[in-house]
Amino acid sequence: SAEELDHRIRAAKAELGDRAVVLGHFYQRDEVIQYADYVGDSFQLANAAKARTEAEAIIFCGVHFMAETADLLSGPDQAVILPNLAAGCSMADMADIDQVEECWEQLMEVYGGEVPGADGRLPVIPVTYMNSSAAIKGFVGRHGGIVCTSSNASTVLEWAFERGQRVLFFPDQHLGRNTAKAMGISLEEMPMWNPRQVLGGNDEQTLQDAKVVLWHGFCSVHKRFTTAQIEQARTEHPGVRVIVHPECPMPVVDAADESGSTDYIRKAIEGATEPTTFAIGTEINLVQRLAAQHPEHTIFCLDPVVCPCSTMYRIHPGYLAWALESLLAGEVINRITVGEDVAQPARLALERMLAAKP
Ligand code: 13P
Ligand code: SF4
């Protein structure tokens, strides 16, 4: 029963004390979040993993790429545990390392290799969204590139343009497009790369003129949000404040009042001093939690059909109990480790992000 499970988790956590730390992403359900020692967005959780040097195990209630990142940034003797190994991310899976390497080879032919131009900048800098495999982060690190999250994407793109004439951005086309557009880059300068076509489906001139080459990936949760939902919210709730995550399609971000990472959304609501109606375009577990925490405001999800991230949802309290009790029994289950050949360049790409200041 849920009660029994709750008792087991609390007992195991108490007995483990500082030996284990539980990290929870904002999109985790409340049944899991209640046990998290630290809750945050993907950037904050990466920093938390880096800071938790005393714990022997980091139990990551989130998805696979986040656990990999925690392994890259945590101490060498710390074990990172993903309670359910099936908790992946469909967007991260859309950038396959073989396809990315093939893309890079074709781009290098068009751009004449990794040779700086007259202005000292390389022809293209690869930038990967945190939501990607460690292999992709390693690729980026090996080619002078950097990682970004939804909370620092414009800072990171500026970093990249100081070093490169162009950016290859993956996997999320929407975050790439929304961020580049806000920097004044035109849609014509942002061709999309379809890995199933030669030159990604572009001609050479388009790639030469490009500022940002966008990979074709997307988030299946955030692509559901529409401008029609925003129009409806504005009709039904005059004065509503619409905030969406930048993984939403460009027309949705343009129609919203604001866009930002999960933590941006949380802070915007916490910072509102007057009772406000908020229509939010992001994962339902976060929206419902914020609504419960802020009865002084009216907070609802733009999508009337409840849309949890199905892979985040795969972390069930039962798996958390299993991970904690195994640790007590001296066994580490579901450990996520990144091989050293990939880890070194991937860490480099992550450290560049952590060092890039807005
Ligand atoms: P944040 O970087 O805002 O935490 O988002 C992570 C994510 O997976 C969004 O879909
Ligand atoms: Fe991946 Fe989207 Fe789920 Fe985030 S919400 S973990 S991007 S599928």
TrEMBL record:
EC annotation from Swiss-Prot or TrEMBL:
2.5.1.72
Q: In which pathway does it act?
A: Cofactor biosynthesis; NAD(+) biosynthesis; quinolinate from iminoaspartate: step 1/1
Residues that, per the record, bind iminosuccinate: H25, S42, Y129, M130, N131, S150, H245, P246, E247, T262
Relate the protein's function as given in its record: Catalyzes the condensation of iminoaspartate with dihydroxyacetone phosphate to form quinolinate.
Keywords for this protein:
4Fe-4S, Cytoplasm, Iron, Iron-sulfur, Metal-binding, Pyridine nucleotide biosynthesis, Transferase
Q: Which family does it belong to?
A: Belongs to the quinolinate synthase family. Type 3 subfamily.
Q: Which organism is it from?
A: Brachybacterium alimentarium
Q: Which GO terms describe its molecular function?
A: 4 iron, 4 sulfur cluster binding; metal ion binding; quinolinate synthetase A activity
What cofactors does the UniProt entry give for this protein?
[4Fe-4S] cluster
- Report the record's Gene Ontology biological process terms: 'de novo' NAD+ biosynthetic process from L-aspartate
Q: What class of enzyme is it?
A: transferase
Signal sequence coordinates: none
UniProt: [4Fe-4S] cluster binding residues: C89, C219, C309
Spell out the reaction equation it catalyses: iminosuccinate + dihydroxyacetone phosphate = quinolinate + phosphate + 2 H2O + H(+)
Write the protein's name: Quinolinate synthase
- Shown part of the complete sequence: 82 to 439 of 448
